[in-house]
Structure formats: C-alpha cells, structure tokens
Design brief:
The strands form three sheets. Strands 3-4-5-6-9-10-11-12-13 form a nine-stranded mixed β-sheet, covered by helices on one side. Helices cover 31% and strands 16% of the residues. Helix 4 (155-169) runs parallel beside helix 5. It is of the alpha/beta class. The protein has two domains: 21-85, DNA polymerase, domain 1 (Orthogonal Bundle), CATH 1.10.150.530; 90-389, Alpha-Beta Barrel (TIM Barrel). Bound molecules: iron/sulfur cluster (SF4).
Length: 393
C-alpha cells in the first residue's frame, strides 16, 4: 500500500526571509502585521490603527507603493518602504480561452511556478487557486498528480493569486474615487487548483482569512469552497478555523476503484471519509457539501455506480458535481460519452440531489479541471508509474 506522508524530506522548504531583507507584508495575518510594525518602531498604542490603515491600502485599494498611503505620515511611509515590501507572484504567462477563461502561470520564490484559473460566468466570476507546487497526492485522473510535490505555498503566494487576478480584471477601486457599485468580477474562490489544500492547512487558513476580512478583499465565506481529496483529520478544522464551504474529490463508489483513482483512500477509505463528512460542523441544507465526481469511461460511470453513490451519501446535505473528464497528455482514461453522463445525472437527480454537469472551461488552454501542471517539477512521473499506481500497469 503506498503511504502518502504529508511532506517528504526531499521537498523544498518554504523560503525563509533573509535577515535585513525587506519583509513582504502580503499574506501576514493582522496579528503578525501588528508585531512587525511594533518591531519596526511603531508605538504600541498606535499599532492597531496602523494595521487597519495599511490593511485597507493593500487589500481594499490594491496599493503596492507605501508613498501612496496618504493617511500615514510621510516619515512613517518612508520607514515602511525601507523595512517592508508588498510583493505578489510574477505573471509568467496569461492565456485567454475562446470561452473567456483565463489561465495564469505565476512564478513564486525559488523560481517555482503555479497555475491559477479565472472562470467568468453570467452571475459570478470564479478563481481556481493552487495551494502547493505539484501535489502531495497522485490521483491518477489528475495532471497535477503526475507532478511530485515541490513545496507548499505560503499565505502570500496563495492570497497573491487573488490579488494578481484582481489586477488583471481591473477590480481595485480607483484611488480618490467613490468605490464602484458594480457586480464583482471575482466573486468566488475555489481551492481546486494544484495541490491538496488540507496538506497545507495553516497557510490556506491564513490566506482565506485575509480574503474574507471585511476591511479588505471581503469575500463571503460562503463564496469560498475548499476541495479536499479526503484528508480526514483536517476536515472538521476547515469548518472551525476557516468556515468556508467544503467539496470532496469523491470520484468512486467502491474502495477498490477509489484506491486507484484517489490513492489517499487507502489511508482513509470511503466509510471513514463519509463519517467525517456526516460530522462536519457546518453541515446544513444551506451549506451543502459538494461531491465532485469525474466521469471516466467504463471506470466509475455505470448506473450501478450512480445508485450506489446516492446510497452512500444518504443523510448528508449534498450536491454532486459531475465533471466530464478533461484529457491531458498521457492520461490513462477517457471521458464518459455524453449520453452516459446524462443517464448518470438522471439517476442522481431522481434520487433528490442536484447533479449539475460541469461545462468544461478553458480546454483550449489546458485550464480545465485536472489539466493544471506547471513546468517546475523535481520529478516527472512516467506514464508507466501513473498506470502502475492506478493499478492499470
Ligand atoms: S486531484 Fe487534487 S489532490 Fe489529487 S493529485 Fe490532483 S491536485 Fe492533487
């Protein structure tokens, strides 16, 4: 049985700030920011107020230059500019699909790269963000899963993806102008990009708290969905410490098949995972858990699978997202035929569950679900390795 320890020794450590090097304020919690300002000489009695002012400049107004923070004294701004920076990941490439989907390849510290995808829709704009370079896990239908874990992202690199996308969408208020009362272009966040967010819990928590903070980016917790492949010990903490919506990469209705598709199932199988979901502290009809189910031809798409799925999740307020498989080079699977997907959805719908079929977006730029992979990798998994771990070799 392949064990999947959270982080292995050969993984690159998260870069530590070099002494004397200006520290990046992005990604710091309010308390961390408070301590940094005091260390920089801010009087204790002023520190809370300064945190609030700087927070609004960075996360509400999108300002990157301390000199523009006009409600702070000139010499204080000079001190900030000397000691700190406001840094975001660098955009290496920006691709726009014919359907409007945008994919960003971003470079982070150490020259590593991650992918982030923006999906515009009628009533919302969703940003799919990454939490690791590569992934701790090796789900056999996922392109990222062929890329070994390089390292966890820092809170700055996670929230930075949101800020970079807002830059690109021009979604920061114009300085000195009344805020635009327009529908937000970036209204939803899904942690469904590269990586298993629950294997980078603390950084994801801090970044999402920054994104939800009402004085800054101010995204509602109900517009943030964290997707996990089933890291059972961390699931309840997601409700308690982040409070966002939860999605689960479910994808199979028997342990035999899920072991092959989502290998972490060998550590916490379907029964254990469902117990954790039934105990999810924020479970309710208004905050249903999303079961993600990739449709793989002849693997997990039978009528029997559909019937078994609704049996398994009985009693859990849920919706099931059916994801037509998005092929990638070397993938060991094919997408289920459309008629098969519709028949599957029909069985679930008749059992009383919403079963939307996800429309693949950004396929022409390899931005669709499960297609993300960055050039940065420490070790490519061969097709033989992928098939072997999927029990297909
Ligand atoms: S589906 Fe998610 S957890 Fe699984 S390999 Fe892909 S990125 Fe990692």
């Amino acid at each position: 049985m392949t064990e999947h320890p959270p982080v292995t020794p050969e993984v690159v450590a998260i870069p530590r700030p070099v002494a004397g090097e200006a520290a990046n304020l992005v990604g710091k919690t309010r308390d961390q920011l408070h301590d940094m300002l005091i260390q920089a000489g801010t009087p204790e009695r002023q520190a809370r107020m300064r945190v609030g002012q700087i927070w609004q400049w960075i996360y509400h107004k999108g300002v990157r230059d301390f000199a523009l923070m006009t409600n702070l004294a000139k010499d204080y701004r000079a001190m900030l500019a000397e000691r700190f920076t406001i840094e975001l990941p660098e955009v290496v490439t920006r691709q726009v699909s014919q359907d409007g989907t945008r994919k960003y390849l971003m470079r982070i510290a150490g020259g590593h790269e991650v992918e982030t995808v923006y999906i515009p829709e009628e009533d919302r704009g969703t940003l799919c963000i990454s939490s690791q370079v590569g992934c701790t896990l090796t789900c056999s239908f996922c392109h990222t899963g062929t890329q070994k874990l390089v390292r966890n992202l820092t809170p700055a690199e996670i929230v930075g993806q949101i800020m970079v996308a807002r830059d690109d969408l021009g979604e920061w208020p114009e300085l000195g102008r009344a805020p635009k009362n327009e529908t937000r272009l970036l209204s939803n966040i899904v942690l469904m990009g590269m990586g298993e967010p629950l294997y980078n819990f603390d950084a994801v928590r801090d970044a999402m708290k920054i994104a939800m903070d009402g004085e800054g980016i101010s995204l509602s917790r109900r517009r943030i969905t964290l997707s996990t492949s089933g890291v059972v010990p961390e699931i309840a903490k997601t409700a308690e410490e982040i409070g966002c919506l939860l999605a689960v990469s479910f994808h199979a209705t028997t342990d035999e098949v899920r072991d092959r598709l989502v290998p972490i199932n060998r550590k916490w199988n379907i029964a254990t995972l469902l117990d954790a979901l039934r105990a999810y502290p924020k479970l309710s009809n208004s905050e249903r858990i999303t079961f993600e189910y990739v449709m793989l031809d002849g693997v997990n798409d039978s009528d029997e699978d559909a019937r078994r799925l609704v049996q398994l999740i009985k009693g859990i307020p849920a919706k099931i997202n059916l994801i037509p498989f998005n092929e990638w080079p070397g993938a060991p699977y094919r997408r289920s035929p459309q008629a098969r997907i519709r028949a599957f959805a029909d069985i679930i719908y008749k059992a009383g569950y919403a079963s939307p079929i996800r429309t693949p977006r950004g396929e022409d730029i390899m931005a669709a679900c499960g297609q993300l992979k960055s050039a940065t990798e420490r070790g490519r998994k061969s097709r033989k390795e992928i098939a072997g771990e999927a029990g297909l070799g």
